[in-house]
Amino acid sequence: MLNRVRARGTRPWLVALLFAAALVPFGATNASAVTSAQCDARVNDTPAKLLPCIKSADLWNHMQNFQAIADAHPSPVDGMPSRNSGEPGYKASVDYVAAAMEAAGYNVAIQEYTFTYLAYKSPPTWSEVSPSPRSFALSTDWNPGESSGTAVAELQPVGGIILPPTPTPSSSSGCSLSDFANV
Q1: Is the CB of residue 92 less than 8 Å from the CB of residue 119?
Q2: How far is CA 53 from the centre of its chain?
Q3: Predicted TM-score (pTM) of this structure
Q4: Could you give phi then psi for residue 5, rounded to 5 degrees?
Q5: Helix (H, G, I), strand (E, B), or coil: what is residue 125?
Q6: How far, in Å, CA of 175 to CA of 183, rounded?
Q7: What pLDDT does 162 receive?
Q8: What is the spatial distance between Cα 40 and Cα 48, in angstroms, rounded to a whole number?
Q9: What is the reported pLDDT for 54?
Q10: First-to-last C-alpha distance (Å) of the chain
Q11: Does residue 172 register a pLDDT over 70?
Q12: What average pLDDT does the chain have?
């Protein structure tokens, strides 16, 4: 098979045909460009009819409106702009889409659905008590994961370590080579 392909070589008419075929869609696209008025006056019920009616400037305006909705509805957890399901920005986005569709002549029905939604009742906090007390900033120093319920952890020293350390520590808490002499 490889020998047959090599024997044929490139044919000049094939290159010309491919070049001509590549030019046809551009001419056809320009000839079939439709105006906004034509799009509004016809039923755009197929992709072939709908696609020429989609304008990038219109899409950009919708994206900017969605960002404005997110900016106006910060997440209760981290204060960042949000349109997450279950949060006020999501509902505002649904209302925006419904209004746009109704303005375009569609009959809109919003269907409710149930989904699992986990959220914090207040922003979670995390801090260090010892040896240097400090608080960690949410979304800067750490991000919470999914959680439910309550967790309490107590420090359980191992091998005679005394915490907090005394003025004359009895252990270097695994920070020196001598702590691993028997390993």
Answers
A1: no
A2: 27
A3: 0.49
A4: -65, -45
A5: coil
A6: 14
A7: 58
A8: 15
A9: 87
A10: 67
A11: no
A12: 74
Q: How far apart are CA 15 and CA 18, in angstroms?
A: 5
C-alpha span between 47 and 128 (Å, rounded): 58
Helix 88-103 and helix 56-72: axis angle, to 10°?
A: 150
- The answer, yes or no, to whether residue 174 has pLDDT greater than 80, is no
- Cite the DSSP H helix spans in the chain: 2-8, 12-31, 36-41, 47-50, 56-72, 88-103
Cβ atoms of residues 43 and 106 within 8 Å:
no
- pLDDT at residue 63 in the model: 94
The SS3 call for residue 136 is strand
Place of tokens 């359980």: 156
CB atoms within 10 A of CB 139: 13
pLDDT tens digit sequence for 4-63: 333 334 444 434 444 444 444 443 444 457 888 898 888 888 888 888 888 888 899 999
CA distances (Å), origin 160, targets 165, 167, 169, 177: 11, 16, 11, 17
What's the rounded Cα separation, in Å, for the pair 23 and 149? Answer: 64
- Mind giving me the DSSP string for 80-100? -B---TTSHHHHHHHHHHHHH
Residue count of the chain, please give it. Answer: 183
Q: Are 123 and 95 in contact (CB under 8 A)?
A: no
